[in-house]
């Protein structure tokens, strides 16, 4: 790895990654928790996201939201957080001389929240507004419908924001219980990149790590299995129909992951992609269409999203299935594969060009892929994909018998039929 990556695993199981970068004056730090919405129990939906919000409402060193906000502004940089299906992350980027203050604030958030009832009640209302906003955004909602159908019966189907009826009942007791069995030493990964001196950084971390509970107190998630489905949902306030369709895809650590990413680029990753050219440029069926890979620890989805006039939705789906069948039958041309490789390499290089993108890249490798590879090694994985590899992966993935589809229509609804999903 360039820049002498420092990689430490504490006796308690906390992983620490530090990449000093000599030519920058900023530093980026992420406190990553290896738990997201798929680790919630049936009575806990939305709690991972609920905690992401409510730890900012007061800690032992910063007892009120105003004090947390003031400490954040004093950093002079950027501080944020997010919750995913498999992780939660609290991260910031500051000038190097503000690193001690950033570490202290991040450490407070992940070890010492107060969970005061009055503050949680206010933030609960904010989260309910966030859920309402998500429901109002058709592309968000049709994606949630897809997850709910494709992984039905598993925690991957949980909306990250949670369900309104459950979130409405969360208070200090629920937040504290989920926090206590989730925010523990083996679940934490600390990643830093930029103008950082590793020994000093470790010294700043030490009192924070000492406050973390030892050992794990959370059962591993059950394996998630995909299933084909077809869901048409009416929505009277929409002018366009929205859809997400998807096929089972490799997980984060699969040997087919690079080929699957390149297949996604070929299918819908750019202006020269198969779907963009056929559906928008040649047929004028839609304004936007694209494909993307969503990998997880033990499963994944190759998803296609689009929106169009309701009267054109069935044709759009039919022609999408035809394009998938063509790739499955004949593979891709050499120039298509080279364009996809260039897109993938460019995206990878761009992910190395700031302290924050380096931090995110390192965390992704450590948490999701279980190994740390140099830029050259990652490039070689992309370059090693052959047309034969892509054809094999396409034949395995783009199986019409395994497709799932959620469509969010207008007042009259959608009318996608099973025969539309057979090329």
From TrEMBL:
Domain named Peptidase M16 N-terminal is located at 23-162
Which part of the chain is the Peptidase M16 C-terminal domain?
A: 174-343
Q: Which Pfam families match?
A: Peptidase_M16, Peptidase_M16_C
Top-level taxon of origin: Bacteria
Which spans of this chain does the record mark as coiled coil? none
Which positions carry the signal peptide feature in this UniProt record? none
**So which cofactors does this thing need?**
Zn(2+)
Identify the InterPro entries for this entry.
Metalloenz_LuxS/M16 (IPR011249), MPP/UQCRC_Complex (IPR050361), Pept_M16_N (IPR011765), Pept_M16_Zn_BS (IPR001431), Peptidase_M16_C (IPR007863)
Q: List, alphabetically, the PROSITE patterns matched.
A: INSULINASE
PANTHER family recorded: METALLOPROTEASE, MITOCHONDRIAL-PROCESSING PEPTIDASE SUBUNIT ALPHA
Family recorded in the similarity comment: Belongs to the peptidase M16 family.
What's the protein here called? Peptidase M16
Species source reads Geothrix edaphica
Q: From which lineage does this chain's organism come?
A: Bacteria, Pseudomonadati, Acidobacteriota, Holophagae, Holophagales
């Amino acid at each position: 790895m360039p820049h002498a990556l420092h990689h430490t695993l504490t006796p308690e199981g906390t992983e620490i990654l530090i990449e000093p970068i000599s030519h920058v004056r900023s530093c980026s730090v992420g406190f990553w928790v290896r738990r997201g919405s798929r680790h919630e129990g049936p009575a806990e939906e939305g709690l991972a996201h609920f905690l992401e919000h409510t730890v900012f409402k007061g800690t032992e060193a910063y007892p009120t939201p105003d004090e947390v906000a003031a400490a954040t502004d004093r950093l002079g940089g950027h501080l944020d957080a997010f919750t995913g299906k498999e992780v939660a992350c609290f991260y910031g980027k500051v000038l190097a001389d503000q690193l001690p203050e950033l570490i202290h604030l991040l450490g407070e958030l992940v070890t010492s929240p107060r969970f005061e009832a009055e503050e949680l009640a206010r933030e609960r209302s904010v989260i309910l507004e966030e859920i309402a906003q998500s429901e109002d955004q058709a592309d968000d909602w049709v994606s949630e419908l897809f997850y709910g159908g494709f992984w039905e019966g598993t925690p991957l189907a949980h909306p990250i924001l949670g369900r309104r009826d459950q979130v409405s009942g969360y208070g200090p007791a629920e937040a504290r219980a989920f926090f206590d069995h989730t925010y523990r030493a083996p679940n934490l990964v600390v990643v830093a990149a930029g103008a950082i001196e590793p020994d000093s950084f470790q010294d700043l971390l030490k009192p924070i790590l000492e406050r973390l509970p030892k050992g794990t107190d959370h059962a591993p998630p059950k394996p998630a299995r995909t299933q084909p489905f077809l869901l048409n949902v009416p929505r009277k306030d929409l002018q366009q129909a929205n859809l997400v369709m998807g096929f089972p895809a490799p997980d984060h650590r699969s040997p087919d992951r690079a080929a699957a990413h390149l297949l996604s680029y070929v299918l819908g990753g750019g202006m020269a992609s198969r779907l963009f050219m056929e559906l928008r440029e040649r047929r004028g069926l839609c304004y936007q269409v694209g494909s993307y890979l969503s990998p997880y620890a033990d499963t994944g989805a190759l998803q296609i999203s689009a929106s169009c006039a309701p009267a054109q939705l069935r044709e759009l789906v039919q022609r999408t299935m035809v394009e998938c069948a063509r790739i499955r039958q004949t593979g891709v041309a050499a120039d298509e594969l080279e364009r996809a490789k260039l897109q993938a390499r460019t995206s990878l290089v761009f992910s190395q060009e700031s302290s924050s993108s380096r931090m995110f890249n390192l965390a992704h490798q450590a948490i999701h892929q279980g190994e740390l590879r140099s830029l050259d090694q990652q490039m070689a994985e992309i370059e090693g994909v052959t047309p034969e590899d892509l054809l094999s992966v396409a034949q395995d993935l783009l199986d019409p018998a395994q497709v799932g589809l959620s469509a969010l229509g207008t007042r009259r609804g959608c009318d996608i039929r099973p025969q539309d999903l057979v090329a």
